[in-house]
């Protein structure tokens, strides 16, 4: 808790709620009475402020995503990483550069963060669901959407202590729609499926270039990336399972980030499964019968001429009662 002096607490409550000093003091005395003197005046004022919805937690300077305006400089936000895109290298004329981006969200909305050149190193270790604090970003408008661009002064703090982000409010454009598996069509995007896992396959690992993340093959000289030459490979992963929602079932494709979300494991844990595949057997069995909610897109697997679902986000915390209530309300409308 931030230690705000009593006078400042009163001032905050007074200006935000338009209540007189006497009124506030009266409430505070009542609080202290209720708690039989086990609480200080400051403590009681904190409780009152919370009850009235006066925000005391956010230090000065931080703003909510829906308050961000184009042209703002040196802004400070906190958000949850909800999507991470690959870092790309590009060449324009003589100049070579790198650009990468990711999307963060808070309770008020989402925004894309763009990193240029050396700043891309700031995003390398980020994973979806990490909470991050961004300092010194600049807001720009790009094709009608706001983005925060990082510069040499910008800082990212991963999972800062004591800071949480509530349920992320998705911007309308990125909202997903629920479908039943039977209604899925090729190239459907931003779809949510809810279903039960009925079959699980082993995780497949493949060598990839640590820089561009393209799949690479072993040559005489070692693992060779067309762009980056001989490299020490890292391992990407992909896992398939069948999901059934009562209307039909579909093969669902998870890549590394999504496997981690599904299994609540780290990348290091996945590498253990690569080295000792037998340790994955028990996890496979445990997944059977699990109900999950996933978002992603439907895509045609040309080789097998079948529709598959490629996962973007995984929610393993499905509340069946909530889902039934939702289904009912959808049927009624
Ligand atoms: Zn490469």
Which descriptor suits the 3D outline?
globular
CATH architecture of the largest domain: Beta Barrel
The pLDDT mean sits at 86
Can you write the helix and strand succession as a string? Answer: HHHEEEEHEEEEEEEEEEHHHEEH
Low-confidence stretches: none
Number of self-contained structural domains = 3
Across the major sheet, the strand order is 1-3-4-6-5
CATH class value of the largest domain:
Mainly Beta
Write the CATH fold name of the largest domain. OB fold (Dihydrolipoamide Acetyltransferase, E2P)
Hetero ligands: zinc ion
Tally of DSSP helical segments = 8
The CATH superfamily of the largest domain is known as: Nucleic acid-binding proteins
Number of DSSP strand runs: 16
Instruction: Report helical residue fraction.
Output: 10-25%
Describe the structure.
This protein is an alpha+beta fold. The chain has three domains: 6-52, no CATH class; 65-171, OB fold (Dihydrolipoamide Acetyltransferase, E2P) (Beta Barrel); 176-332, Nucleic acid-binding proteins (OB fold (Dihydrolipoamide Acetyltransferase, E2P)), CATH 2.40.50. Helix content is 24%, strand content 38%. It has helices at residues 6-17, 21-34, 41-52, 120-123, 256-263, 267-275, 281-287, 320-332; strands at 75-84, 88-92, 95-106, 109-116, 131-142, 145-158, 177-178, 191-200, 204-208, 217-219, 222-225, 229-230, 234-244, 249-255, 291-301, 306-315. A five-stranded mixed β-barrel has the order 1-3-4-6-5. A hairpin with a 2-residue loop joins strand 3 and strand 4. Helix 1 (6-17) runs parallel beside helix 3 and helix 2 packs across helix 3 (41-52). The longest helix is centred in the N-terminal third of the chain and has 14 residues, at 21-34. 22% of the residues are buried. The site of zinc ion (ZN) has 7 residues, from loops. Zinc ion is lined by residues 209, 211-212, 214, 225, 227-228.
